[in-house]
Write a structure and sequence with these properties.
Layout (H helix, E strand, L loop, with lengths): L1 E3 L2 E5 L14 E10 L4 E2 L5 E3 L5 E11 L1
Parallel strand pairs: 2-6
Antiparallel strand pairs: 1-2, 3-6, 4-5
Length: 66
């Protein structure tokens, strides 16, 4: 993920940054999409997994060190 103004933006298909990019400022381009909440709740109404809020996702992303 990357952060924009402190808000996480997930990069579709990216499991982890290459070691040389971790913690560095990057420039990322792609198609920004808003995804609906994906979370589910257990019988006790406690969250089990997924996202409880809308999330931002970059599709078809490309990146380079800024």
């Amino acid at each position: 993920m990357v952060k924009i103004d402190g808000r996480p933006v997930y990069v579709r298909g990216l499991r982890a940054w290459d070691a040389e990019l971790e913690g560095k400022q990057v420039e990322v381009t792609g198609t920004l999409q808003t995804r609906a909440p994906t979370g589910s709740r257990g019988p006790d109404e406690m969250p089990r997994h997924g996202f409880g809020d809308e999330t931002l996702v970059l599709d078809e992303a490309e990146w380079a060190v800024a």
